[in-house]
Amino acid sequence: MTEATCKRELELEIPAENVSKATEKVARDLARVARVPGFRPGKAPVTLIRRRFAEDIQGEVLQSLVPEYIEKALEEKKLIPITRPSVDKVDFKEGEPLRFRAVFEVLPEFELGDYKNLAINVDAIETGDAQVDKVIEDMRERAATFVPVEGRAAKDGDYVLIKLSGIPVGGGEPVQADNILCHIGAEETLESFTENLRGASSGETKQFRSQYPDDYPDQKLAGKAYDYTVEVQGIKEKKLPELNDEFAKDAAGEKGGFSTLEEMRKLIFGSGEGRSAEDTGSREASGSSGEAARFSGSRSAGGASDECEAGAQRSGTDGSRSGPASREHRLGGASKPPTRARGGRREGRAPDRPRRRSGKDRRDR
Predict the structure, then answer these.
(1) How far apart are CA 61 and CA 338, in angstroms?
(2) Do the domain assignments include residue 126?
(3) What is the pLDDT of residue 221?
(4) Which of 26-30, 214-218, 275-279, 326-330 has the lowest mean pLDDT?
């Protein structure tokens, strides 16, 4: 572990037994929904599923195990990262422990000033069934899996796995990226990508031009036009877990705390995680001098938050780094824990996912 700077590195290992159990579970879950030629949906043998979708299964295993073990290591070493850990040096071999490295930054050490005379007032926020339902729905979104689609072209709502290279019109630095999940027809996806990838099949290559708006977040792309060559590597459907007791057990993870959906709802309600739609509030801190400072911050619910996310989060279902196909993109932006790494060959990085923008005024020109 590097101590000289704020950068930290952790070399971690997941026991082979845990990896095998997770692999078997992912294979069984995939077998229930995968469409394989010659078999009715959900009837293909698990052995065939493991051979046919080996890379997808490995990606799901990384997605389910790596964030959990990073969290454990951070707790044991009492480290609080300020950046989302990036994962590399992934060594994933069948029957062996899963090894990887997590790299992140922490806050520098500093001397805390006098804070004991500060008073904090927090606005009262209501907790209701609607807020609890939203928390649970968010957990389902984070636990979603992406199932490979075969035998048809991409349509709206699909996630197309692409590799792209782009050349700026008029000259400039080219853009290259792979392992990007492009959500067809979504608000956050540039219209040029949706229009050209809608109806595309796996293995097909598309060539088209994209014009980025002047206020695009990435200055390297803002106001420029790019000629893209895009290779369709696969088509996936997003599947949410069923809302039942089994989902609650998975959400609880090894920490436990609840084993039924009803118990999970009560714990979320009691912890206050479902307090409001935005789960934020205005706080006022004042010292003995009477001067006040206002700020806004997210509330830490504790309890259900820690226990639910340990098992339910699939690290990246809501992407933290967007791609050139997105309306909002930062080249070289923050990386996220692995979700779709391919057998260690891709250094454990997840496929890039676009983020949804709050406004609707950014359109591909």
Answers:
(1) 10
(2) yes
(3) 86
(4) 275-279
Q: Report yes or no on 247 lying in a domain.
A: yes
Percent of the chain with pLDDT strictly greater than 90: 29
Give residue 327's pLDDT.
57
Structural tokens at position 158: 């699909």
- Domain assignment present for residue 30? The answer is no
Three-state helix/strand/coil letters over 77-95: CCCCECCCCEEEEEECCCC
Task: Say if CB 54 and CB 31 are below 8 A apart.
Answer: no
Residue 304 backbone dihedrals phi, psi, to 5 degrees = -60, -35
Cβ partners under 8 Å of residue 127, min gap 6: 269, 272, 274, 275
| In-domain check, residue 131 | yes
**Number of domains within the chain:** 1
Name the least confident of 22-36, 238-252, 304-318. Answer: 304-318
Q: Letter for the amino acid at 353?
A: R
Give the type of residue at 166: G
Task: Assess contact for 273 and 135: CB atoms under 8 A.
Answer: yes
Burial of 30 (0-12, 13-18, 19+ CB in 10 A): buried
* CB 212, CB 221: distance < 8 Å: yes
DSSP symbol at 218: S
Distance CA 297, CA 244 (A): 32
Per the model's pLDDT, the better-predicted residue between 129 and 298 turns out to be 129
Contact 309, 339 (CB under 8 A): no
Domain limits for position 266: 114-144+240-314
What pLDDT digit, counting tens, does each position of 70-88 carry? 999 999 988 889 888 888 8
43 HSE (CA, 13 A, CB side): 5
- For the chain, strand residue ranges (E) read 7-14, 86-91, 98-105, 119-122, 145-148, 159-168, 175-183, 205-211, 225-239, 280-286, 292-298
